[in-house]
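subagent[fold] <- orchestrator: predict structure for attached chain, return tokens only, no commentary.
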Amino acid sequence: MSLAKPWRDLDRSTVGSAPDRYALYELGDADGDTVGFGTGVLRDELKEAVAYGDAAKVRWELADSPDHAERLLADHVEGWGYQTRGNDRQTKVPRPPRE
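subagent[fold] -> orchestrator:
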């Protein structure tokens, strides 16, 4: 499931204007197809993605804390069943318990 946010070009300008806050972020290729999700301090994560990844686009949802970002991630990847970070590894994401 993709974030319902517009794509932004993943470049130094976007990194410079990104909030220095925790977030769930989604990376995309040049066509706007999702190549991965991740969580962390947004500006730091985007710096890493620009330097070492091959994604062309990004969108994000801000979070109030690391735990909040992880909950957002779990909600968004439930249909995918995995998370990619920096487009170089996959990590299984546990589904939240059903109530």
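orchestrator: received. Logging for downstream: The first strand starts at residue 8 and ends at 9. DSSP finds three helices and six strands in the chain.
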